[in-house]
Amino acid sequence: MNRYPIWKYLLILVVVALGLTYAAPNLYKPDPAVQISGQSSAMTVGQNVLDRAEKALDEVGIGYVGGEVGDKAILLRLNSMDDQLPAKRAIQEALGHSDYVVALNLASTTPDWLSNLGASPMKLGLDLAGGVHFLMEVDTNTIVKTNMEGYVQDVKAKLRAAKARYRSVDLVDDREIVARFRGDDLRDLAVSTMRKEFPQLQLTEGGSGDNLEVRASLSEQEIKQLEDYAVTQNLTTLRNRVNELGVAEPIVQRQGRNRIVVELPGVQDTAEAKRIIGKTANLEYRMEARPDTLVTNKEYFEYRNEQQRQMYGGAWLERKVIIKGDRVTDARVGYDESGFPQVNITLDSRGGELMHRATWKNVGRRMGTLFIESRFVPETKVDAEGNEIVVQKRTDDRKIISLATVQSALGRQFRITGLDSAAEAQELALLLRAGALAAPMYFVEERVIGPSLGADNIEVGVKSVQIGLLAVLVCMLLFYRVFGIAANIALAVNMVLLVAVMSILGATLTLPGIAGIVLTVGMAVDANVLIFSRIREELRNGMPPQSAITAGFDNAYSTIVDANITTLIVAVILYAIGSGPVQGFAVTLSIGILTSMFSAIMGTRAIINLFYGGRRVQKLWI
Amino acid sequence: MSETKVENEKITEYMGKRVYDFMRWRKLAAAVSIVMVVASLTALVMNGLKFGLDFTGGTQIEVGYEIAPRIEDVRNQLDAAGYSGATVVNFGSDNELLIKLPPAVTEEQTQVSARDEKASQSIGDKVVAVLAPASEGDVDLRRVEVVGPQIGEELRDDGGLGMLFALAVVMAYVALRFQYKFSVGAVVALAHDVIIVLGFFALLQLDFDLTVLAAVLAVIGYSLNDTIVVADRIRENFRKVRKATSEEIINISISQTLGRTFMTSFTTLLVLWALQFFGGELIHNFSLALIVGVVVGTYSSVYVAANVLMAMGITKEDLMPPVKEGAELEEMP
């Protein structure tokens, strides 16, 4: 009685061994280090740079463990965290600011055989280890400009519909629409039409004779609202992107009127982080221009794909935009019949309507998908007082990624083809899904920040966790004796498995996170407590020891499963609906539930079976 | 006094174990629960939660030191000057610091809205005035800015919606596995616990930050877990115990699970006490929220969930399984 087949023991052993392996890297504390890389990716950093850096450290008297020259960067390991910032400053001064980037980093000390298995330690959160800090500015001028450009198209359409023939309608200084008319009656008609159709525009009349003008602009209030909308929208998009990237526990917050702060935990490859955060890709759909379309109503774009560009060069598209990327509600990567990557797009209802209206009467014409990338190049200018100021000059890169014949009216769902690679499809889908930026952004500053908690706080936090754990172990031992030992072993296994799974998933550890883990451990004993009190009950009812063990485990089983599944449901829903920190917590909770069910039911049973199984037992030490 | 007549007929022992008459106090318990929930809701409406830096944003001050300071010292100096809840981090180099202050502090200190840029500026000057005397070199103010919350509005809205959805799914699951009366009991107990924890924080005006939010989520898990364990035993006993009233069966079930309820709550509380007493300031509120949650959760699994079952008039017939399901249960490992 109460014996497990060999395969069950083996299974448990394998799981525990795997758990130990993948949890092990967390034991190797990373060395504080300074990373030196070239300002541009083409620059290589070699032994001579390392020598200069080491010399600089010797001069200020900072000890170091040693340096490694890697492919793109040098890692110089230091003795303590406190040395990092002074070391960085000393090296940066010695090497000069123009050629080299010196950043703080943590050098892994995980042995090679572990890294080769894909094992890596959990990352530490902003509170425990600090990270990188980006300050970005939202280019709010652009949002006003694009908005006004939209108005120009709309105003033209409404004026034509009202038969208020205009000489021209133009955008001046990005902020004002000027419509010109030949006669008083036409202008009056235009003014009344615009007042009715666009109440948000402020109108002023001017000009004389043949050149009568109506000037329309947005009120300061209206502009502020637009900017607010743009910043909020960008904030949401950035949060989504950072979450999509799987960077746990980031901080994304608004600062002042038009700035956004992004803080990412861990000092990682800042270039990579910048690329994804700052990416301002967007999409536009436009119909291909008919050959007889006026030049003012069409634009020429090149193909994005090298091959297509060489064959066709580019194409003329209408100026009028059907929809933009902000109408996209979902975007997924798929593959067409011949295995080429495509992105399947779902639009919101308004987008679907616009798309349908544009395509149903244009079947047979071609529609182009434009991919827009914005880049900012800092430019130094001299202002009126003779001071040098740096202006971020923005360039938009609009290229055609596909130009396909409209086969039938399109609705809310369709696909984009003509992408170069699966990776590109992946990235486009991610960017569209996370939402487009309402306005482009550029980096104002980039800094490395220290841990927000401070060494003292971390120390007491970790200490309290240890005390709590120890108390639980002692308590279990006092209450359940031999069974307590089994439960404690299972608890240790649970802890190892939890850490292993979180490491594999690349979770970020914060102090509340650590407390959460300990809490799941506190709650994980529940399963064992349930089983043991059931066994005691059965013994009290006069059942012989061996049967009591079996009955205890069996009867407690459905209770444990019910209780845990209910909690798991909540965790899964929290994960699906929450974001950022809530998701992180939900993950810890779910993993904790699963590992504790394994260790408390199977693990404890195995130990008890090993100890009591298959022999005559007079008395259970419980 | 008039109810003494039934006393001697009640089951006081079952399977060699004493049965406590829990349900005797159920009306009193219901009254206590209602008072606590109403008080919590009142506190929430009147005081509101005092959201921490994560939720509200605040003022961000960048200061430069001539001589690099120790971060711990700076924190202590700020605390001593009444700027509690500030975070201080190295910013770029070791002699530049970034200090974030919650708006509540700013308001107390200046009596002006924290959103006011000029008010922020004066806070910056005040902070530097606090820090400068302690440093041997110069301390200068680099920049003062208002920062928005770390958590978007959408999290708050989605969070609320998510909770309702989660409750609905849990109700459905419990109704499926047990019976709909149990799902009402479980959800009422859950709402009871969460409202009281939130009310506690509103009443004492403790900082409600992200860690406390995590604690509230954990309370949900804990409360459900506890309630289901008791419910499971009640279901089992309704099927097993022949001659007993619903009230007696609930009493038997709670008595049987009492040892387990106390043991689990106790071990969890052990961890929480350790965090509370030794864990330092940051996890203080986290553990406090959980301690309240665990205590209330333990109480509610006895007196709220079971009480709702009684009030809804649970009977044996509600739980008599269809014959097939019973057969399956026997076979379970």
UniProtKB/TrEMBL annotation, chain A:
UniProt keywords, alphabetically: Cell membrane, Membrane, Protein transport, Translocation, Transmembrane, Transmembrane helix, Transport
Transmembrane segments: 465-483, 490-508, 514-535, 556-577, 589-612
Sequence ranges assigned to domain Protein translocase subunit SecDF P1 in this UniProt record: 231-288
Gene3D superfamilies in the cross-refs: 3.30.1360.200, 3.30.70.3400, Multidrug efflux transporter AcrB transmembrane domain
Similarity comment: Belongs to the SecD/SecF family. SecD subfamily.
Protein name: Protein translocase subunit SecD
Main location: membrane
Domain SecDF P1 head subdomain intervals: 310-439
Localisation per UniProt entry: Cell membrane
GO BP annotation list: intracellular protein transmembrane transport; protein targeting; protein transport by the Sec complex
Domain Protein export membrane protein SecD/SecF C-terminal intervals: 445-608
Keyword Transferase attached: no
SecD export protein N-terminal TM domain ranges (all copies): 1-104
A GO CC term assigned to this protein in UniProt: plasma membrane
Gene label: secD
MF term (GO), any: protein-transporting ATPase activity
Role summary: Part of the Sec protein translocase complex. Interacts with the SecYEG preprotein conducting channel. SecDF uses the proton motive force (PMF) to complete protein translocation after the ATP-dependent function of SecA.
Domain of life: Bacteria
KW Membrane (keyword) present: yes
Membrane topology, from the record: Multi-pass membrane protein
Assembly with partners or alone: Forms a complex with SecF. Part of the essential Sec protein translocation apparatus which comprises SecA, SecYEG and auxiliary proteins SecDF-YajC and YidC.
Origin species: Microbulbifer donghaiensis
Pfam families: Sec_GG, SecD-TM1, SecD_1st, SecD_SecF_C, SecDF_P1_head
From TrEMBL, chain B:
Pfam family, one: Sec_GG
Alphabetized InterPro entries for the sequence: SecD/SecF_arch_bac, SecD/SecF_bac, SecD/SecF_CS, SecD_SecF_C, SecD_SecF_C_bact, SecF_bac
The keyword DNA damage is annotated on this UniProt entry: no
GO BP terms: intracellular protein transmembrane transport; protein targeting; protein transport by the Sec complex
GO MF annotation terms: protein-transporting ATPase activity
Keyword Cytoplasm: no
Major location category of this protein: membrane
UniProt topology in membrane: Multi-pass membrane protein
Location(s) in or outside the cell: Cell membrane
Domain of life: Bacteria
GO CC list: plasma membrane
Regions that span the bilayer: 28-46, 159-176, 183-204, 210-231, 252-275, 287-310
Family membership: In the C-terminal section; belongs to the SecD/SecF family. SecF subfamily.
Function of the molecule: Part of the Sec protein translocase complex. Interacts with the SecYEG preprotein conducting channel. SecDF uses the proton motive force (PMF) to complete protein translocation after the ATP-dependent function of SecA.
Quaternary structure annotation from Swiss-Prot or TrEMBL: Forms a complex with SecD. Part of the essential Sec protein translocation apparatus which comprises SecA, SecYEG and auxiliary proteins SecDF-YajC and YidC.
Name the UniProt record assigns to this protein: Protein-export membrane protein SecF
